[in-house]
Amino acid sequence: MELSTQISPVITSLFRSGRRATIYLAAVIAILAIGGTVAYARDQIVTLTFSGTAETSPTNLQQPNSSNDGDSFAGKSALGSFTVRNVRAISNSLGSSDTCSGATLLYYPELSGASVIRFDDGSMIAMNLTQGGDCIDLTTGLAHCTVTFQIIGGSGRFVNATGTLTMTETVGTVGLDALGNPVFFAATGKFTGTISGATDEKDHGNKQQR
């Protein structure tokens, strides 16, 4: 009888502990079911392929002896469909480059600029231009541009994002002004690099396709 009396509280305690654990687990499952979203941050190696147009930009970045370029691109990637708006100040004076040298090649450094990549879910990546240049091939009439951007944040999935993306593009002239200066261009290219601190959001009930 004594043994039974001693065991009974132990069983009761275990039962209550198990019940509390069950209730807690049920509450967690209910919260996840209601919210439907789990978010976590990770590093992502990305490639964003785009096409679009470039033109003389009305935005003046006030860089001495430079021309201002504005880009409007769109594309698709594993992160979703996206659009890009760039503004860049390109030097009017020739520079030098180990990868762009020769009698028919002209190299113009890029002095400053900024970029915003907007994805189809409304999330954005904001970037500042850190270095780059345009290599113009007089034989083909095409420009090959390589520009490095530093990620400074954004919104949505990329509110805490950092990292570096390199933009490579090929640009061809489409339209000239009355003086014969090229002012409107067609462009194709891609951004490559690593985005750190971005958040993946996965909807368990109705997962968004990206």
Notes on the protein architecture:
- The chain has 210 residues and is an alpha+beta fold.
- It has two domains: 1-36; 40-202, Porin.
- 16% of the residues lie in helices and 58% in strands.
- The chain contains one helix and eight strands.
- Strands 1-2-3-4-5-6-7-8 form an eight-stranded antiparallel beta barrel.
- β4 and β5 form a beta hairpin.
- It is elongated, with a radius of gyration of 27 Å.
- It starts with a helix and ends in a 7-residue tail after the last strand.
- The model is unreliable at 27-37 and 202-210 (pLDDT under 50).
Radius of gyration: 27 Å
Task: Give the low-pLDDT segments.
Answer: 27-37, 202-210
Give the N-terminus to C-terminus distance in angstroms.
67 Å
Q: How much strand content do the residues show? A: over 45%
**Could you name the CATH class of the largest domain?**
Mainly Beta
What structural class results from the helix and strand content?
alpha+beta
Task: Indicate the multimeric state.
Answer: single chain
Largest sheet: 8 strands, antiparallel, barrel
- Counted by DSSP, the helix tally is 1
Q: Please provide the count of β strands.
A: 8
Number of domains: 2
CATH architecture classification name of the largest domain: Beta Barrel
How do the helices and strands follow one another from N- to C-terminus? HEEEEEEEE
Whole-number mean pLDDT:
85
- List the strand order in the largest sheet: 1-2-3-4-5-6-7-8
- Shape field: elongated
Output the CATH topology of the largest domain: Porin
